[in-house]
Amino acid sequence: MKKRIGILTYRGDKGFGNPFFLRGLVQEGKAMGVEIYVFSPQDIDLEHFRIRGFEPSGARWTCQWREWPDIVIDYYRYYPVEKHRHYLPIRKSSLFYFANNRFANKFRVHQLLEQEPGLRKWLPETVQFSRKSLEHMCKRHPILYVKPTNGTAGRSILRIERRGADRYLLFGRTRQQVVRQEVVSGLAALSRRVAIWVEKEKQGSELFFLQQGLDLNLLPERTVDARLLAQKDGEGEWRLTGMGIRIGPVNSSTSNLHGGGKAVRAGQFLVKRFGEERAEMIIHQCRELALDTVEVLERHFGPMMEFGFDLGIDTDGRVWLIEMNPKPGRDIFRKLEQFDRYLLSVRRPLEYAIYLLKKDQSERELLVTT
Q1: Strands (E), the chain
Q2: Beta-carbon neighbour count of residue 281 at 10 Å?
Q3: Predicted confidence (pLDDT) at residue 82 exceeds the cutoff of 80
Q4: In the chain, what is the greatest distance between 2 CA atoms, to the nearest angstrom?
Q5: What are the boundaries of each domain within the chain?
Q6: Residue (of 211, 40, 191, 15) closest to 110 by Cα position
Q7: pLDDT at residue 73, rounded to an integer
Q8: The CATH number fitting domain 4-98, selected from 3.40.50.20, 2.60.40.420, 3.40.50.300, 1.20.1630.10
């Protein structure tokens, strides 16, 4: 009998977010011989124990009532706002067998990693936002970032750069990807402007945090960082699917591809900037850091499925762990024209979900025979 995989995600008035990825996921699942469909919280019919499942048909999506999934991959991007109110009760319930465990917000994860002696050296200083903490961090670091705990794609991030004794350049991108830039004088004025930014950009009860800015200008006036994707394979083992370098637009606060950044191959870029020997060492450090981090995270949150790591490489070649995302994008591989690697990044969550079902079945059969 075919395995049945459900993909949980948000669907609004304009349809699904990230439909290209979801289409690929369904198509790959079918090619692997599984029954697969996409659904949202409003598609769950508890009375009849069935799901309104969606799948692509040409340029459209079609739906029909489907049987309950054997396992669910959660790709729902949650924010603490009214339209997402049905997600958490479902995620906290025992309605589904989930392939990926729940995760914490970015600031909470940073706090956990700070307690690990082996990881602490890789982490930029990070504190919860308040006017007092802003003043403290401004005195310690020439560059700061103000970030939302649940942000994605570089949205709602504000960069603060100290210019001279008491002037600050603010550069940010709103939730709607509108660029904002201004200069303020004095800590009091800075504090007011940042408080206004946070109030406008926060979603529901969302919190913001402050993070030490790094000198990531490996190219003049451009922010550069690395994106590394770690995923579990069909044997339940962590594998490094790929890595690329993201280069932000001129004077941008972030390097995100959604904000106009571009992608280049990691090896070529780092060799050109640091030389072959140093580049190999940097790439090795990035890989080791990712694998060490997933081991720690699984101790806290249980088995996970995949993580996208945003890694900073400063002008001295030092590697920094900026943040990680358990529901990562993988467009960087398409931008790099690494289409086989992109396809692998789509297949691996499905392979892992099938592995979990087979493992679960084997364990049940073992219990019966003993």
Answers
A1: 4-8, 11-12, 15-16, 35-39, 44-45, 50-57, 60-66, 71-74, 126-128, 143-148, 157-163, 167-173, 179-185, 208-212, 224-232, 238-247, 262-265, 306-313, 319-325
A2: 15
A3: no
A4: 75
A5: 4-98, 115-120+216-353, 125-212
A6: 211
A7: 98
A8: 3.40.50.20
CB atoms within 10 A of CB 136: 13
pLDDT at residue number 124? 94
The tens digit of pLDDT for each residue in 22-57 reads 999 999 999 999 999 999 999 999 999 999 999 999
Strand (E) or helix (H) holding 163:
strand 157-163
First to last CA, the chain: 25
Could you count the other beta carbons within 10 Å of the beta carbon of residue 23?
17
Q: Is 153 helix (H, G, I), strand (E, B) or coil?
A: coil
Q: Report pTM.
A: 0.88
- Distance, CA of 153 to CA of 254 (rounded, Å): 9
Given a contact cutoff of 8 angstroms between Cβ atoms, the answer to whether 291 and 304 are in contact is: no
Cα–Cα dist 237/174, whole Å? 38
3-state SS string for 252-303: CCCCCHHHCCEEEEHHHHHHHHHCHHHHHHHHHHHHHHHHHHHHHHHHHHCC
- Output the CA torsion 25→27→33→34 (10° steps): 50
According to the per-residue pLDDT averaged within each range, which of 149-163, 243-257, 265-279, 350-364 is highest?
265-279
CA distance 284 to 311: 13
Scanning the structure block, which residue is given the tokens 């450090």? 285
212-to-140, 223, 331 alpha-carbon distances in Å: 9, 14, 27
Choose which CATH entry (1.10.10.10, 3.20.20.140, 3.20.20.100, 3.30.470.20) describes domain 115-120+216-353. Answer: 3.30.470.20
Whether residue 259 is predicted with pLDDT greater than 60 in this model: the reply is: no
Confidence (pLDDT) at 206? 79
- Report the alpha-carbon distance of residue 83 to residue 251 in Å, rounded: 34
